[in-house]
Amino acid sequence: MSNTSSPNFIFIKNATVLTVDPLNGTLANSHILIQEDRIVAIGQALPNPSESNVTVIDGQGCIVTPGFVDALSLINNGVTSVLEHCHIIDSPDHADAVVEALQDAGIRGTFYYGFYANPPLPDQLDPRGFSHDSRLSDAARIRDKFFGQNDPAEQLLTFGVAPDEPESMPIEDTITQIKQSRELGARIITMHVAMGPYDLARRQVVQNLANRGILGPDLVFSHGSSFTESELQAIKESGASIVGTPDTELQMGMGFPIVFEASDRGCRTCLDAARTTSSSSSGKRTRFPLSINRKTANIFRMGTLGGAEVMRMEDLIGSITVGKKADLVLIRCDGIENIPVGGPVGSVVFHSSVKDIDTVIIDGEIKKRNGKLTVDWGRLKEEVILRADRIKTEAAKIDLTAARKRWMDIFHVEDISE
């Protein structure tokens, strides 16, 4: 936010407001007043602000929701907070570039410094590539350079760590990396575990961590299709969390998504497919959860307040509540898919898509307005095309035989191309 002598205001008027706040529920024909980065008032009888520096947004025919929390998509899709599990850190320059890109975008979330070592290129002299010790040192550098106190109340982006893939190394190494992550000051630690048929050894990583007393509320596990009942109980008791991505888990053949059962058992859960704004076919994505007797409101909650709980930010975001950060999405309901609106939650979950996202606000800053991002897309588009061409040209020079074999071994894929 800009530091001016007088505060900036945003006034959203005459909208249907899905607060996800149990005290307020759904509010018809209501107004929201934002001052700087906070929600300061919600109601039907709010007077129009008299200040000169106020942006007024007419919400007639629109639904306002909390910003969505996601591990994959970003601002254009209505996502205001992201879990950035970054496993492409091949050098310190890569790490700097990722953090700077997230900061430039102005999105809220946690950047997870990935310890995963990508296969070295054929012409690299050091077969280990960017070594683990080098990553530890560089993660500390990144932590000190970008993240200050690492407090989500004071900064949009915070620091976390993603240890190497736990199902590809001994449990002692995973424990060591978790301890190293905590020593680095990681606010959250995330990892992929229990991915069904990809975990042929049935390592039960979570159970082993529980047995060693390593589990804690700072751990977030993705996927988990083959979690046991005792592992789910251990996650619940420790305060750890689960992120489910049903479309990915089904597409990759991991097995039946566990996130719904985990939610029923009282675990903290976030559902990527809960937000319907990922693509024009997003409504189809959300029908899977609902087809197994999940209430629409529960699915919606998992993509908003549930995601905030997983990120340990529920006191700041996840619901439209006075005093919380102003992370909001305004969805237009005047399109052919949404007329008439039978129920606002169902309209968001079943019928809305990225084209219906009119406005996205993060920390009191408008990032998308009238259906367009508030960036110079013409310039950025040309830059993206140029960079993509360069990457394709450089990639064509690389012999990927070794990397291809490695990934086929990891995912137990048989080569039938010959």
Automatic annotation (TrEMBL):
Keywords: Hydrolase
Pfam family, any one: Amidohydro_1
GO terms assigned for molecular function: hydrolase activity, acting on carbon-nitrogen (but not peptide) bonds
Domain Amidohydrolase-related, residue spans: 74-366
Protein name: 5-methylthioadenosine S-adenosylhomocysteine deaminase
Organism: Fusarium agapanthi
